Amino acid sequence: MMGEPLLRELTPAVIGVLVRRGVDFQAAEDAVQEALLQAALTWPDRPPTDPKGWLVTVAWRKFVDTHRSEAARGDLRTATRLYADAARSAPSLAERDHLTRQAARINHALRG
Questions:
Q1: What's the burial of 32, exposed, middle or buried (CB within 10 Å: 0-12/13-18/19+)?
Q2: What is the mean predicted confidence (pLDDT) over 73-82?
């Protein structure tokens, strides 16, 4: 049975692997916490043959997913600003309206 003592033992090592891969400590802790929650849900029915490897893999994927999501939000915010700036300097009313609508759509996507 893989229980809490094993998870407590593996946690620092898994955080260490992520930090050595270049993840900052806080983000590594967050990703490992997510992996531990997933382990609590998954391991009782399907225990892994390599618990540490499983935790590293899941924590890495959680980090990558979070990082990509945050980067995408940042890209959308940048795009919104660019459309808004372009709308202010657009030569025609139709172009300003089009750019303003695009900025509003992106803004809506950020909130959704």
A1: buried
A2: 75
CA distance 14 to 21: 11
- Domain holding 18, by residue range, is 4-111
E strands present in 21-87: none
Give the position of tokens 């959308």: 76
> Count of domains in the chain?
1
Q: What is the pTM of this model?
A: 0.67
Instruction: Look at 2 and 37; give whichever has higher pLDDT.
Output: 37
Confidence class for position 109, pLDDT limits 50, 70, 90: confident
Residue position matching structure tokens 């945050």: 70
> 24 is written with which tokens?
């900052």
